[in-house]
Amino acid sequence: MTTAALPWFTGTSINPLLRSAHLSMSGHEVTLYIPWIEPEKQNTIYPAQFSFQTKEEHALYIFKWLRNDAKLPQAALNMKLAFYDAHLHKPHNSLYAMGETVEQIESLERFSLLEDNFTANKMNITSALYLPQIIVLEEPEHLNWYAYRNGAQSAWRRFPFVIGIIHTNYVVYARTESVSRIKWINKILQPIFGSLKAYATLGISRWMCAAHTHAIIRLSHSLPKLSAPHDDVSNVHGVRSIFLDTGYAKAITSRFYDPSIISATLIKNQPILSQTTPNLCQSSLQFRRRTNNYQHEHSTNGAYFIGKMLWQKGLDELGHLLTKTQQAYGGHLPGIFHIIGDGPHLESISRKFHHLGLDVSFQGRMDHADVPPYRVLINPSKTEVLCTTVSEALAMGKWVILPHHPSNTFFTQFPTCLIYKNHNQFIQAYSYALHHEPPPLSRFLRHTLSWHAATHRFCQLTAKVSTKKKKNQLLRPRHRLAAAIHCHLGRGFLGDLIRTVAGGGFYLGFQSRYVRQQKKNYNKLSSSLQQQPIAGNFSC
């Protein structure tokens, strides 16, 4: 179950979909549970050209994307999709579940695509009894903050094994979120209220993970521990084959191509047992040393940032770094800098960058695979957990320039990753990357980025934790107490009141009222259908 769905191209829509796809190709029966937004509200979250009148249309679009864009036709035939009602909460710019989710698992309406109707664009829909053995909650804290609860039947842990994957550092988001549009008021109040919100977010997130999971996987050490029964840190995300193919095609045409290091074996998704890789430097201070064999390149395709247009993504820091770079170059950046993406803060970000006099081009939303062949990706964000676009850029054989931060530890093993600690190191790295060809990645490093390797890491962790669960080494009384309190405190009017006051507002907060209204509408529809006469002539 995840918190977003295509065509909203974000990490929590793409990564869970690709994880499900690769698990289904491993022989597992997989259903991905995704949010459904009413057609009249879809334009608030999806690009203008996308509109789905039915869940069947939406499912068909996702299956086609898997087949055509992700190049996973077999996965599109293997896996299933199911939908839960969702609401876009504008203050958070996030989707949250509305009504029953846990309670409907056994009777989910699941959509699948049969091989003989791929061309006919028809779906197979089943509502047979469904008893999953493993539940994977992508962002378990997010999925449970404002969720409907109605006693023990609303507990995720009533299923045999529940594992959560933490994608987002909501604590940092809460700490840095503005409290007022008026700058001087925000400057005074934000440090106080930001800290309070951060502590509250951390406490509630720990509660949700302790109450509803058997284990969690944190993508990097930048995330705080969340009090789950079992906790692991591992990058269980990969990149699509299109990025690896692009990087491989670039590598074999490079003047530095070495068949003994760069092999097409990875493209075939075959496991690599040998880890014979070149020696890699771990510090950006050594980036000149590790690329001594790579000659100076006078031409460049430029640099870019890609991501959601939110100040929390480090765009304020990006403006500062580019300003320092521009000053170092005598008032002009070494070429236009490209900013790709869309989001609620786009207007204010654009205004700020133009006010700084930066030579920046805003290009709107774009799939990373469709971005022109810029040589350098810059991502100054320190709120990321493990940035997907950085992995994609590395796979495509680009330079990436990142701040020294725990969220970037995984990337330091790659020779094309340049780490900076201050603006002087950033300027050096930026200048060097623009004028030097990136060294090609070894076969092993490219395999490390693949979904094949990521799925293997995920399965290894799941097997390890499930063994502990069988030995009753996971749950403690405090975990059971956390679940009991949440599932019973969230019932009825009291639950609606708590959710509303906690930030859900008068729509998202009133989950119990929403469920009652849904059941009332369903009963009314059933009654009207039963009262309709059946037309037709019958004779013996």
Helix and strand topology:
Layout (H helix, E strand, L loop, with lengths): L10 H15 L5 E6 L18 H14 L4 H6 L1 E10 L4 E4 L12 E3 L11 E3 L7 E5 L1 H5 L16 E6 L3 H7 L6 H30 L2 E4 L12 E3 L7 H12 L34 H4 L12 E4 L8 H14 L8 E4 L5 H10 L4 E3 L13 E3 L9 H8 L3 E5 L13 E4 L2 H12 L8 H7 L1 H20 L6 H13 L2 H17 L2 H21 L9
Parallel strand pairs: 1-2, 6-7, 7-8, 8-9, 10-11, 10-13, 11-12, 13-14, 14-15
Antiparallel strand pairs: 2-3, 4-5
What does this structure look like?
- It is a single chain.
- By secondary structure, the chain is α/β, with parallel strands linked by helices.
- Among the domains are: 1-132, no CATH class; 241-449, Rossmann fold (3-Layer(aba) Sandwich).
- Helix content is 40%, strand content 12%.
- It is built from 17 helices and 15 strands.
- The protein has helices at residues 11-25, 55-68, 73-78, 140-144, 170-176, 183-212, 241-252, 287-290, 315-328, 346-355, 388-395, 423-434, 443-449, 451-470, 477-489, 492-508, 511-531; strands at 31-36, 80-89, 94-97, 110-112, 124-126, 134-138, 161-166, 215-218, 231-233, 303-306, 337-340, 360-362, 376-378, 399-403, 417-420.
- Strands 12-11-10-13-14-15 form a six-stranded parallel beta sheet, with helices on both faces.
- The chain starts with 10 loop residues before the first helix and ends in a 9-residue tail after the last helix.
